[in-house]
Amino acid sequence: MSTAAPRATGQDHLWSVDEHLEDILTTVRPLEPIELNLLDAQGCVLVDDITVPVSLPPFDNSSMDGYAVRVADVAGASEEFPAVLDVIGDVAAGQAGLLQVGPGQAARIMTGAPLPPGAEAVVPVEWTDGGLGEGPVAAMRARSLAPEAAGGQVRVHRPAEARAHVRAKGSDVQAGDRALDAGTILGPPQIALLAAIGRGTVRVRPRPRVVVMSTGSELVQPDEELAAGQIYDSNSFALTAAARDAGAIAYRVGAVADDAETLRTAIEDQLVRADLMVTTGGVSVGAYDVVKEALAHVADEDEPGSGVEFRRLAMQPGKPQGFGSIGPDHTPLLALPGNPVSSYVSFELFVRPAIRTLMGLTDVHRPTTRATLSADRPLTSPKGRRQFLRGRYADGAVTPVGGAGSHLVAALARADALIVVPEDVESVAPGADVEVVLLG
Amino acid sequence: MSTAAPRATGQDHLWSVDEHLEDILTTVRPLEPIELNLLDAQGCVLVDDITVPVSLPPFDNSSMDGYAVRVADVAGASEEFPAVLDVIGDVAAGQAGLLQVGPGQAARIMTGAPLPPGAEAVVPVEWTDGGLGEGPVAAMRARSLAPEAAGGQVRVHRPAEARAHVRAKGSDVQAGDRALDAGTILGPPQIALLAAIGRGTVRVRPRPRVVVMSTGSELVQPDEELAAGQIYDSNSFALTAAARDAGAIAYRVGAVADDAETLRTAIEDQLVRADLMVTTGGVSVGAYDVVKEALAHVADEDEPGSGVEFRRLAMQPGKPQGFGSIGPDHTPLLALPGNPVSSYVSFELFVRPAIRTLMGLTDVHRPTTRATLSADRPLTSPKGRRQFLRGRYADGAVTPVGGAGSHLVAALARADALIVVPEDVESVAPGADVEVVLLG
């Protein structure tokens, strides 16, 4: 790390939420693709179009447990006048090439087993006597208990058309078809298809590794004793959980004390496992705001634009924010404010979209909706700042929970939405229509 | 495992989807709670009500970087006629008990730091000269660069009311308040609150361990060579992914051949790590349906009602189903049919709710909605069976993808919804109102 010239934008510029977000989203690039085992790629974004290498099913096969027959042999068959056929053996799933069905013959066949040569249709076992000579049966006898049922004779009670109960080769997908498009998110059904066409690995953008570090000499690990002036560290827990929720592999680093050198070392130590660094605290105007102190003048001289810039944003909570990149790999870093609600709201607005951009997703934002404000009195908001209040959303209405204070963690835990009050609005009356971010 | 009497319900009973589901949901019980580290409990259900042990914040503290002052000392202050106070030192976050603010004095104070005795309010640094004697400043100088700023004099340009910029002890939550109710699902904001009140561990119902095993001698592992009559195993991949998606810790067991003894051994080997067993294939009426063969007569004689029962369900796809419990711990087992679409739909309808019941969730089902059928021709459905067709849902309309065939994996990968055709409906016209299960 070394000192570089400050960026073009000055310290006095008050950034809008949208400007800050745009800076992040145009700077952060999707991670390089890697080849992953299918189940490790769950939730990841496919990089290449996938073409079907082999038709599905790969061969004509039976869709029922029954008998593979020639159509002419069962024409006109009924329970009163069954077609009597010689059973030449079993075709189980996974078998092939053993039997040939000739005139007057049938092969007992299982669901998914290949239609043997000579056979033209399958009659379900329920349309036969199952070889027992005593009227229709509901099921075959198990091979292991009654091996003789693979021979003898079977009475067929109904005719079958050509191809009846036969799944044609390629009826699901044909070799050469497009199975999945690049950009597809791999959920269970997409994983099913990839496995079905024989793909055991797949090239995707990996889940980003996110290191979450809280800063503050006042922070104590939960379950330890609080001394005077101390509070428990909650940000590193909350944001690690939120990063996982966003799709990342997240590593929580315990609270780091307010000392610039300690912090710099801690960050450098973590860079090796980070695709994205997130810090909380130490970004404001105080004399001990060491994140700012440690990172504001850190950049790679050879890389214009690298380094971390600290900004004032026209928003509440979350006015002070830092963003930039650090280390030899120019790892993106978001430095969030330290108040629990400020850091959580900042995560939702800025870090979550950054994580989802790293994953290669195009839909990186939380869904928003319009809702009717349900409140006893007007919401007030400072002019010129976009305010994000915590709320509960249900059935088209949103109710604020807790106040605007950025230390109100208990209210945050009851919220499932953020109520957005635009920059040019200072008061919102009950019953008004407001924008709501759904926290999902 | 030993032989037991069959259950009361006979083999001939045709079960409705609802009867089968009810049997599963009344049999499967939530897992016993365990104490987990906070971040390991993400997504889990809280077992106990959680009470706040210590008020938050635990002490009066500053909401701004600024100066802790006595109200009388700054009364009437302005930029023209500033109040000039002696700075007696810094109060950083995490410090306490070092300073006492007397008349004519101020302590430089950081956000989150405890209000020192004697002080009644905080004036933000932006309302002062920051000790520089040159008009209002935007920020404090870093302690490490300008230690002298913790002393000297500060000019305050504005008065402050009592308690201005002070967060009162207990203004977030009070000791004794209910923090979270039993039954709460622990997302990031709830984890934030638990950490903030000092809880490092929490008693929750753990994620269920689900073992997924596909059966079939025709199944080949992806990336291997297909011989004649073979297909790739996709069910074990799809359902492992789906189980993880539902909240489980899922273990995939590769395809097991159609041999009852091999299968029994494979299942017994897995029981040690299973809270729920899921198999696919081998449950129908064929001569090689070994899941049925291996499990239909397996039960603990001492436990009435244990054992696995195989049923015909009035649904399509997914007619043959097995459900029961096995092994010394009566581990629940769902035996799903082997066709990929059948097993996937069965998972959504029966296994996912079972997993979520094990987790202690009360909302165990996928959301459903009504939609307008967008199709070129009517959907047909067999009488007396509830049909689940794959579809794509958007903006109140649902469009079928692929046909009804239970082997159509490619169509499944393009679907995001199931179209439900009730038992008593045989045809649904385009434009009709249908029930839709949203696969999320």
UniProtKB/TrEMBL annotation, chains A, B:
Q: Which residues form the MoaB/Mog domain?
A: 211-357
In which pathway does this enzyme or protein participate?
Cofactor biosynthesis; molybdopterin biosynthesis
Enzyme Commission designation: 2.10.1.1
- SUPFAM superfamilies, alphabetically? MoeA C-terminal domain-like, MoeA N-terminal region -like, Molybdenum cofactor biosynthesis proteins
Gene3D superfamilies tied to this protein: MoaB/Mog-like domain, MoeA, C-terminal, domain IV, Molybdopterin biosynthesis moea protein, domain 2, Molybdopterin biosynthesis moea protein, domain 3
Q: Which CDD domains match?
A: MoeA (cd00887)
Identify the keywords attached in UniProt to this record, alphabetized: Magnesium, Metal-binding, Molybdenum, Molybdenum cofactor biosynthesis, Transferase
Cofactor(s) this protein requires: Mg(2+)
GO terms for cellular component: cytosol
Task: Report the top EC class in one word.
Answer: transferase
User: What domain of life is recorded for the organism?
Assistant: Bacteria
Q: Which GO terms describe its biological process?
A: Mo-molybdopterin cofactor biosynthetic process
Give the catalytic activity. Answer: adenylyl-molybdopterin + molybdate = Mo-molybdopterin + AMP + H(+)
GO MF term (any one): metal ion binding
Role according to the record: Catalyzes the insertion of molybdate into adenylated molybdopterin with the concomitant release of AMP.
Q: What is this protein called?
A: Molybdopterin molybdenumtransferase
The species this protein belongs to is Streptomyces glaucescens
